[in-house]
Structures are given as C-alpha cells and as structure tokens.
C-alpha cells in the first residue's frame, strides 16, 4: 500500500465493533482497522501507535503461538495522511449504525492497522474473481466455570452467553432471546452443532455475519435491524451450493440451502490440523463437570431424556474450536477467583509504580511474555508473580472468548485434497475446498481499560 497516495473514494465502510472501525479497499483485498474512542477521551498519537503495535505483537507472539500459524493474521501498523483519514471519516459516517456512534474514529493520529480482508481473501490456488463467501462467527465462551471461587451457583449451570441474553433483551440491545448456546457449538456433536448454527442463523445478533464477495449479506447491526430473511439468504447462497440442479425458489429450496450451509460450516469447524500450543496441550480427558447449559433448548431436551452428562466432547484435537476452547480455559479461576489476584498486582504497582515496566504490564508482548503464560500451576504461593501470571492468562482467555472465526468458502476446481463436497460452481459435482479459517484478535491492552 502506498500510504503517500491515498484516495478515500477507493475505500468503503466495512463494519465496526466496540473498539474499532474497519474500512475495506474496493479492489484490493485489504482493510484498515482504526481505533475508536469516546469523544472526550483524548489520546496522543504516540499512545495510539503503541496501542496498535501492542495489538500486532500480542497477535504475533501470543495468539499465534497458542492457536497456530495459519489462523492468526497480525497485520501491520501504517501511518496515513491525516487529510485522507478525515475525508474517509466524513464519507463513511452515514453508514455507521447509530448504536455505535457514541465513539468516534481516531482521525488525529493517522495510525491504523492494515490487514488482509478476510471476507474476500484470495489465495494462489484460486483463480482471481472466483466468488467468495465468508461466514463470521463470534462463538463466545464455550465452557461453564468449574472454579470453587464462583459464588453464584447458577454460573455452574447456565453459561455466560445465555445469562447475558436476559440482560441484553431487558436493556433493549436485542429484541429476543437467542436459542444459540456456545456449549452446543463447542460440543463436537454434529446434531448439537447444527442446532447451534441454525439458532445463530435465526437470531444472528452480533455473533454471525455472512459476506458475499466482501459485501455483508446477512447479519444485524442493532435491535432496529430488519428481521433476517432466510429466503433472501438462500437466494444469495444457492449458486454456491446448488448452481444447476434446478431447485426453484420457495421454502423447500430455502431449507435445503440453509441445511447445506450449516453442514459445511460444521465440517469446517471440525477440521484443521494446524499446529499450535493449544493443540498440543495435554490436560487429561478434557473439561470435567457439566457440558450442557441448562438454558439451551437442546440442553433442556437432553435433560428431559435423562441425558445430563452426554458423551465426552467430540471435538477433534487439531480443530480450531478445540484450540479456541483450550485457550479460553486458561481462565481457570473465573473473574471471581481472579479479582483478588488482580488486586494483589494492583496494590503492588501502587507501591512500586516503577516495576510496571519490568513486569511487562503494558508489554512488550514478546517471547519472554509468552513463556510466562505457559505456567499452568494453580498453587497460590502468595507472590505477585503468581498473581500476575494468572491475570495475564485471563487476558489471553478473554481474547479467545471474544474472538471471531472467519470462514472463507469458495468453489474450486477438482482437487484431491481436503474438505467439503457439494455441487460446484461449474454445475458438475466436484470438490470444493475450504480455504481458511481465520481469527481476528482484539484484546491487546487490558490494563488500560480498567479492571478485567
Ligand atoms: O463481556 P461480553 O461477553 O459481553 O463481551 C463484550 C462484547 O459483548 P457481547 O456480549 O459479545 O455482545 C462486546 O461486543 P459488542 O460491543 O456488544 O458488539 C465487545 O466485544 C467487548 O469487547 P471490548 O471490551 O470492547 O474489546 C466484549 O467485552 P469483553 O468481556 O470481551 O472485554
Ligand atoms: N481483517 C478483517 N477482514 C475483514 N473484516 C474484518 C477484519 N477485521 C475486522 N473485520 C470486520 O469488522 C468488524 C469489526 O471489527 P472488530 O470485531 O475487530 O472490532 P472490535 O471493535 O475490536 O470488536 P469488539 O466489539 O468485539 O471489541 C468485524 O466484526 C468484522 O466483520
């Protein structure tokens, strides 16, 4: 990218979350990710540069190590002409959902992250201009806390996502409670995973988006979004899955297309053999305790059938969901068990503020930082070192609990390797290849945002 010659007309609004706003280049497969702040929060250019560099280092030296080379895209910090950023900000303002406008794009520093556009990434094995479908899932936390430090008994029975649903509907953030439960998705049981994905398709909230050739075709921005229409989605997807079998429109076609989509996503989520710490981690037979959330309709039906402890998790060890779950489970203590340790670190830093740097509280997120995270001991010896390790592991776990998995699908030519089989683009039945499963990471700087 030639940062010297930037034209705002070549970029368009792509999406945003709570902390950043993303614009995509119209032709090239790149995006720019800008930080956002409340209007009153003034940060210096140097602070913003450091924040972005920390995100890159955290992705490179921590998340990549945990999840494996192929799944994490770190990007790079770029400096852009201020005039370009200001014009871009004006250009996209009208496309931003109202609920996100409490924060403004950073137009003062000129710094942003440049990343591959994971919604339309092409790889060498695919001809240019091949259609691309991208499914983005934010699965959230996939286990119930086991820690004895948990004081609210319900947290051992109902997962955080499902508990949160009640709050979100009560506060008007979303219109209705979703039937999606992360524990179903992470179960590794195909039937439960299908149920979870169908539930996400019914009530996408901020947990599911679908892009076609980089354009958002399914998902909601806030509670005012129009009701998601499966017929419209099926219309977009039919050429990917059933290009020439003559299925007309109508409910039968819609159901068939949705079923196929769910089947393919499940297959992708269960595939993968990329190496990474979490894949190699040995923790005995897997999580103990209940693996079903009582709030999930699927969980309740298992309960009615007297199957409280379904089969062991069927997640294959190498698959991305397995690895993500292992990293999430670095949170061994739950926030209730963690908080006293956080306070121990905080008190120490109040007394010895100069130690902040030596302890790598705000980075650098380098090899030494990563090595400390590998100590999984739970024996509290009362030291600041122990407390800090648990706090840093919690931060990594939080990143994995809030990450999105971006799955790009594209029909391909006959290929002896890998993946899902469906009616291919050309019309004859050939193999289609799932190209990549992508993760994007957010939480790089936690201490700057207050207590975890
Ligand atoms: O706490 P949660 O589980 O509600 O997660 C927050 C997300 O809410 P969700 O429940 O997914 O709608 C929240 O997402 P939304 O703004 O609700 O789309 C953010 O992802 C937030 O991350 P950050 O602190 O801004 O970096 C997330 O906060 P963290 O807890 O990951 O810091
Ligand atoms: N590299 C990328 N390629 C394509 N789309 C992306 C990329 N990075 C982010 N996006 C899109 O932009 C949206 C917002 O980005 P992101 O989730 O990183 O924001 P955030 O503010 O950090 O999120 P949160 O609300 O979880 O804190 C994502 O949901 C995704 O659709």
List the helices and strands and how they pair.
Layout: E1 11-16, E2 20-25, E3 30-37, H1 45-67, E4 76-79, H2 82-92, E5 104-105, E6 111-116, E7 133-137, H3 160-170, H4 182-185, H5 190-202, E8 208-212, E9 215-218, H6 230-241, H7 251-270, H8 277-280, H9 297-304, H10 320-328, H11 334-351, H12 355-358, H13 367-373, H14 384-401, E10 404-410, E11 421-423, E12 429-431, E13 433-440
Antiparallel strand pairs: 1-2, 2-3, 3-5, 3-6, 4-6, 7-8, 7-10, 8-9, 10-13, 11-12
Helix pairs in contact: 5-7, 6-7, 10-14, 11-14
The chain binds MYO-inositol-(1,3,4,5,6)-pentakisphosphate (5MY) and adenosine-5'-triphosphate (ATP).
Protein name: Inositol-pentakisphosphate 2-kinase
Main location: cytoplasm
Organism: Neomonachus schauinslandi (Hawaiian monk seal)
Shape: globular
Helix content: 25-40%
User: Gyration radius, to the nearest Å?
Assistant: 22 Å
Annotation field: number of helices = 14
Which hetero compounds are present in the coordinates? MYO-inositol-(1,3,4,5,6)-pentakisphosphate, adenosine-5'-triphosphate
Q: Estimate the strand proportion.
A: 5-15%
- First-last Cα distance: 36 Å
| Helix/strand structural class | alpha+beta
Major sheet: size, sense and barrel closure?
Answer: 6 strands, antiparallel
Count of beta strands:
13
H/E order of the elements?
EEEHEHEEEHHHEEHHHHHHHHHEEEE
Mean pLDDT: 84
Q: Tell me the quaternary state.
A: single chain
| Uncertain spans | 279-286, 414-452
